[in-house]
DNA sequence: GCCACCGGTGGC
DNA sequence: GCCACCGGTGGC
């Protein structure tokens, strides 16, 4: 039997590095330790408000009296995520890729299948499920959502290809990211933004992987 | 040659 | 007007 050797070969790089959710009571940001936990919270945030108390499950000492885990300043790129996105089925990955600043879109969502195939849309997904029933037992399309987050800083996206040719040294959006969830209390944000999830990245990163090594 | 990334567009 | 979908392509 061939192992999953091939799986490690393809590197799938998630833009989001950090996840945070806002306490519905004190409005402070609490970091979420894992993507899995974050997805669990995100799925049910509307029904179950997130509180600092919730974070005690992994951080017993935390309370509303403590300072926010993260400051909402511009050292990060923040994006609002959507609630009710289903938890990713076991064996699959839901990947968020943030695009470079100044483009026409903010982010792409895709799923990586148990056989390490990258799917870009519901069309591709349902085709895959049909063609690989043995890999997709107990899985159906209601468990998937390609809904991307939106940038908190709307200037991140160029509204449209404009005549103004700005020669930005367009930095790759790759960086440390933080995905965070606002409290679900109010239904409308400032300009009727639909939900209150956020993603953050740090400032510019030189390039993917460039930082890691001191060379050799 | 592959595939990550981006823009175009058709359907709503 | 928006956005889901997918084709093109540039960089590896």
Automatic annotation (TrEMBL):
All copies of domain CW-type, residue ranges: 7-72
GO MF annotation list: DNA binding; zinc ion binding
Domain MBD, first and last residues per copy: 78-151
Keyword Nucleotide-binding among record annotations: no
Chief place where the protein resides: nucleus
Keywords: DNA-binding, Metal-binding, Nucleus, Transcription, Transcription regulation, Zinc, Zinc-finger
GO CC annotations on file: nucleus
InterPro entries documented for this protein: DNA-bd_dom_sf, Methyl_CpG_DNA-bd, Znf_CW
Subcellular location: Nucleus
Superkingdom as given in the UniProt entry: Eukaryota
Protein name in the entry: Methyl-CpG-binding domain-containing protein 2-like
Protein's organism: Sesamum indicum (Oriental sesame)
Name of the gene encoding the protein in the UniProt record: LOC105157857
């Amino acid at each position: 039997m061939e192992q999953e050797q091939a799986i490690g070969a393809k590197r799938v790089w998630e833009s989001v590095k950090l996840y945070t959710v806002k306490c519905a009571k004190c409005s402070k940001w609490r970091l979420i330790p894992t993507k899995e936990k974050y997805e669990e919270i995100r799925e049910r945030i509307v029904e179950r408000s997130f509180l600092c108390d919730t974070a005690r499950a992994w951080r017993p000492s935390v309370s509303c009296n403590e300072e926010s885990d993260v400051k909402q300043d511009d050292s990060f790129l923040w994006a609002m995520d959507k609630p009710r996105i289903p938890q990713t089925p076991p064996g699959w990955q839901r990947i968020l890729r943030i695009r470079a600043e100044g483009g026409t879109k903010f982010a792409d969502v895709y799923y990586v299948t148990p056989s390490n195939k990258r799917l870009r849309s519901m069309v591709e997904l349902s085709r895959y499920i049909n063609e690989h029933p043995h890999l997709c037992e107990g899985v159906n399309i209601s468990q998937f959502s390609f809904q991307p987050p939106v940038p908190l800083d709307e200037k991140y996206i160029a509204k449209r290809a404009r005549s103004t040719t700005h020669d930005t040294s367009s930095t790759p959006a790759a960086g440390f990211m933080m995905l965070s969830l606002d409290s679900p209390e109010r239904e409308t944000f400032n300009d009727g933004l639909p939900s209150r999830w956020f993603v953050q990245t740090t400032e510019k990163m030189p390039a993917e992987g460039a930082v890691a090594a001191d060379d050799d």
